[in-house]
Structure formats: C-alpha cells, structure tokens
Specification:
Largest sheet: none
Distance between the termini: 81 Å
Oligomer: single chain
Number of strands: 0
C-alpha cells in the first residue's frame, strides 16, 4: 500500500510564523516537496536548515511508523469484504486439511479470491463456534432409537438388587420427621 500523504504538524507553525510571507510560502512549499519524497529545490540556506533539522525527522519518523503498521497488519486497504458461503466452506476444508492461515490465503489467491489472514481467522473461529453449537445440540436431543419411556425403563431395571423397595422408602420417609424450632 503506497503512502502518498504526510502529516503537517502544528508545531511547524512556529517556524512559519517567524518568517515573512514570501519565506513562509517557500518553507511550506519545501515541506510539501520533502513530504512527498521529492528533493528540496531552494537555495535559501535558512529554509534548508529548518527543513533538514526540524521537519524532515518528523516526516521520516511518521512514515517509518506507518510502514511498520502496514507490515504488522494494522493498516489495510479498507474493510475486508464479506465471504460467500462457498468460500467459507472452502476455508474450513483447507483448515481441516491442516493448512495454516497464511497457506489458506495463498491457496484462495490461486482461486482468484483475495482474502486477508484476519478474515481467514475470523471465518475459522466462527465455523468452530458453529460446529461446537451443533454438537452440543445433538448431545441434548435424544437419539431416534431411544425415547423417554425406554430411558425410564432402563433406569428402573438398573441393578434392582441394590435398590430399595417402595415400602422401604416409605418407612424411611416416616422416620425422618421435620424439625420444629421455637423461638
């Protein structure tokens, strides 16, 4: 991504305000030239010194920070485009095949689909959430082969030798009288 702009700092106004109108115009023009990576074309030594000593370091520092941000992915060419369902499915399949996000970006590029690494990551995360939700819902639903009656019968028939009879349970309940407290 080309950087065809620069920041004009308010602090530079100190230099501009101290010059007469013609020299101020010349300084602003030289700032413009340096800001857009052009050579200064003035013979005025004072303006050259101001630009080299005070203006140029600011411009170079800002461009260096910008280029670092672009390399680290903090700047991009706008918002990522939305992917289609077919593209999402392909991203998921490539992820399941063990490709890294960068490899998925390269593969999608060979298919003519421009997509960022961040978009691939977002699509994979959303698909994982979707798959997780699907599997959780399937665990909660009874399978077609079993129904509630079968589950209850299985539970009732489970290890009858260790379970208490209904009479034993009634006796146990009668023995446990509620406690009454008076204050």
């Amino acid at each position: 991504m080309a950087n065809n702009s620069f920041i004009f700092y308010e602090s530079w106004s100190e230099f501009i305000d101290d010059l007469d109108r013609e020299d101020a115009k010349e300084l602003v023009y030289q700032i413009y030239r340096v800001g857009l990576d052009k050579e200064m074309d003035t013979n005025d030594t004072i303006i050259r010194k101001i630009v080299k000593a005070f203006i140029l370091p600011n411009i170079k520092g800002a461009k260096r920070r910008y280029n670092t941000a672009v390399e680290n992915g903090k700047k991009s060419e706008g918002a990522p485009r939305k992917t289609t369902e077919a593209e999402d499915n392909l991203i998921w399949e490539l992820h399941l095949d063990g490709l890294t996000y960068d490899e998925i970006v390269e593969r999608m590029d060979t298919y003519g689909v421009k997509i960022s690494r961040n978009t691939v990551g977002d699509r994979v995360r959303k698909r994982k959430e979707l798959e997780s939700t699907k599997s959780n819902n399937q665990e909660l639903k009874p399978s077609e082969e079993t129904n509630n009656e079968t589950n209850i019968n299985t539970f009732k028939n489970k290890d009858k030798s260790n379970s208490k009879s209904e009479n034993d349970l009634e006796d146990e309940v009668e023995e446990k009288q509620p406690l009454h407290y008076s204050f």
